[in-house]
Amino acid sequence: ADGKVYRLKMAETWNANFPIFGDAPREMARLAEEMSDGRLKITIDSANKHKAPFGVFDMVRSGQYDLGHSASYYWKGKVPNTLYFTTMPFGMTTPEQYGWFYYGGGQALSDKVYSKFGLRSFPGGNTGNQMGGWFQKEINSVEDLKGLKMRIPGFAGEVMAKLGAKPTNIPSGELFTALERRTIDALEWVGPSLDLRMGFHKIAPYYYTGWHEPATELQFLVNERTWKKLPDDLRTILRTSMKLSSYDMYIQSYHESAENWAKMKQEFPNIEVKSFPSSVMKAMYDANESLLAEKAAEDPLAKEILDSQAQYMQKVRVWTNISDRAYLDSLDNLAD
Amino acid sequence: MIGIIMFFVALGMLLFGFPVAFTFGGVALIFGVFAEGWDMFAFMPFRIQSYMENTVMMAVPLFIFMGIVLQKTHLAEQLLEAMGKLFGSVRGGLAISTILVGALLAASTGVVGASVVAMGLISLPVMMKYKYSKSLACGTICASGTLGQIIPPSIILIILGDVLGIPVGDLFHAALGPGFILIACYIIFIVIVTWLKPEMAPAIPYDESLGTRSQQIRDALKAIVPPLALVLIVLGSIFSGIATPTESSALGGVGAVFLALIYRQFSWKMVYDSALETVKVTAMVFAILMGATAFSMAFSYTGGDYIVEEVLLSLPGEKWGFIILSMLAIMILGFFIDFVEIAFIIVPILAPVAEALGINMVWFAILIAMNLQTSFLTPPFGFSLFYLKGVAPSSVRTMDIYRGVIPFILIQVLVLVSILIMPEFYGMD
Amino acid sequence: MFLVQFEKTLGRYSLLLGKISALLLILLLINVFYDVLMRYAFNDVSIGMQELEWHLYSAIFLLGIPFGLQTGGHVRVDLFYERLSIRNKAWIDLIGTLIFLMPFTLLVGWYGIDFAKEAYELGETSGDPGGLPARWIIKSVIPVAFFSMAVSGVGMILRCVNAIRGTSEKGFDEQSPQH
Ligand code: NA
Ligand code: NA
Fold first, then answer.
1. Distance A311 CA to ligand 1 centre (A)
2. Which of B241, B276, B345, B415 has the greatest count of CB atoms below 10 A from its CB?
3. Across the interface, do B245 and A174 touch by the CB < 8 Å criterion?
4. Are the Cβ atoms of A181 and B238 closer than 8 angstroms?
5. Contact between B47 and A58 using a beta-carbon 8 Å cutoff
6. What are B122-179's pLDDT values in tens digits?
7. Tens digits of per-residue pLDDT, C115-124?
8. How high is the ipTM of this complex?
9. Nearest CA in chain B to A193
């Protein structure tokens, strides 16, 4: 290997010092620099510097930045097929999805979508299962979803809309006031790891468990030209750093969620944690299926990705059931 | 280093009197291209888009429209005059009314540009009509228009809550005390000044021909009702959950047109003229923001943010030394860079130190918010000053505004110090 | 005389942008009012209508800036400027326009073209349910606005030249705007 130093610039969607999400790219840069003995130097610009949290795709594509840290589903409005590489409602859990991505053909499909734009995308850290959101009122039936004003962006919002809910745009700075004053009835954010910072637990009585983002995976975007100009060893180092820091974020996220959950339950014991009743889950599942069928019918590549995910999930879920689920269920019996 | 030189060059260039917005943009271009090449400006459309999608800023044109309609229909004038009369022979009655109206406006928006400009349109002409000292009038408007940053809802507090990981609700709650004290101090200041120098803020003369005193008070009350109802609609719609704070500004605009209708001042021409004027004032505010975003881009991409970081990392690690020096640092940086940058870049450097020293983070956040609010008022770059200049008649000079805000800056510093030494008084010990 | 005429034509163009912005502002008021009313009274929300709000708002301020330039509505620090003779003011405006305003607006406008073109080529739409299609339209307002600012800049240059040559003092006979 030559001693040439490669200085790469990375833009992240998050503001400076945003916990967990922002830790992943920093850890990646640190690993890459140390493993390469200083030949890879990555500087990270946060959204408050570049001012374009949702311009990361364009800026990495045009080469203004070599790398990006963001989430694939943010680009759904530009490139519809990017939707499928973050998480899907009623989709795979995090280990299942990693299985699909690394060993079940996910990476190849991702390359198929991103290569058209001179980009490569790699996993960038997982939040684990996200919560269904904070609600001002209980959801006991599909009827309760009708007219429910909820901040729930993207594809999950489409699913809710199909059941008569009213997805609503509220700037994040006004979310707290809007939920407190019941301008909206509900909102989804992330999970305990990040929700507590927003203070929603002080103003909304119901915290629903998840359905729409079972395994939210962030992404590292790499400009193809940057990727090609790196020598083989640095490419391996970069790839390894990305993979390791992503894994680390998943663990960190899991840990923080557990910590915050305990804190929340201790300080606010009255928060009611709920799951949607099965009739509601069924209706949302059906709505999701029919929306996915529409997407598959519109675009052969979408169909290819969705089929690949569905087939993989069918196989892997059997294993999840006889391993993790069976184990946890059998512990339940223990407690009886 | 380039960033610092650029700052002083911009300062020098501004003095020539070429429009502020394009002086910022042009200086940024020259330094940015020199240091980083043309390509840096490919970031500009993204930065502009971040303003376009920032719907909270939508309150700017909407509140300005409300202000202009109230001005054109003379409803605002009547409100202020009536309030001034209610204060009767109290000198400075108009200034006190301005502060109160400013406080109400502050409770409905956190966007400084919106409230300073609206207040400038509503109350500057009235104060000038009654021969107020120009600098006192301007200082009062800038200061009360800037109250929006400390009185909830407030953008600074929302961002600080996010950065420091404190629930926004807690911060809103903690900011109420300092906000009220600030309003009270402004009013006390007006009372003292007009007592010492009556010619600065003459009382509205008692005019016998307008009927008896009680008759006049009744008239005054009548004049207060409509605009006050409007303010209540704006605030009420937020508190009842009918509208978000931003949307409430549109209700204010529609409400103003409705009032014009009731008071037979309505015409399509009036609405159109108000809209055209709103566009002009809004453009003035956003042009400055466009220039400033280019400036801060050149500042940070040429390494200015790293210099700032270095300075801060050298602050002492002992409670009072740390607090005092960090407050001074924020105040000085407030001359250079805008509050969003400070909140996102500087506060996170200070936060872990503060936390390690066992400092109450809500208290720390309120101190920072008060401090940043002051930066809107400090010459030469305080945005409030530019905004007021943009809507003031040409007889108001830049110097009048600069001179006028100085006492209010001192008051803010005093209140800041009081929060610093008596947190228990504000319930933040 | 030709320069004075040409300046007038440019002025009419900026004025047109101002008029468009004013109409958009009235639409914005109606838009937001309608959205609040529908949500509160009829429990109905349209993301498309909500997005239209920021489309209108941003078009208003972007197209308003060249209009503001034409009508002298931009803030100056006039500590010294106000005491200068018309000729000297014209010189400052001429030089400022040439070295600050024109390069800045033209460069931003130039990069704005790619920005809008990218959205057009990708067929970019909103990512939210019921959001607006054709993002390129609102994105292309950026280059349009900045090139229009440059057009207003040309108008300023002509006014300055006219004032320096003594042909016309238009634009300098009054100071900052009256409201
Ligand atoms: Na989420
Ligand atoms: Na406020």
1. 25
2. B345
3. yes
4. yes
5. no
6. 888 888 888 889 999 999 999 988 888 888 767 778 778 777 877 667 788 888 899 9
7. 999 999 988 9
8. 0.87
9. B165
Asked if B421 and B324 count as a contact pair (C-beta separation under 8 A), the reply is no
B378, two tokens: 């400090």
- Select the residue from B36, B38, B49, B50 to test the A interface by mutation, using most A Cβ atoms within 10 A: B50
Quote the number of domains for chain B: 1
Best to test chain C binding among A72, A86, A114, A169 (most C CBs inside 10 Å): A169
Counting every residue written for chain B, the total comes to 429
A248's tokens: 């680390």
Distance B180 CA to ligand 2 centre (A): 12
* Strands A272-274 and A206-208, sheet pairing: parallel
- Report whether pLDDT(C73) > 80: no
pLDDT tens digit sequence for B3-28: 788 888 988 888 888 988 899 899 99
Flag if B394 and C178 touch (Cβ within 8 Å). Answer: yes
State the pTM of this model.
Answer: 0.84
Residue from the list A75, A147, A169 with its beta carbon closest to the beta carbon of C47: A169
The residue range of the domain holding B325 is 1-426
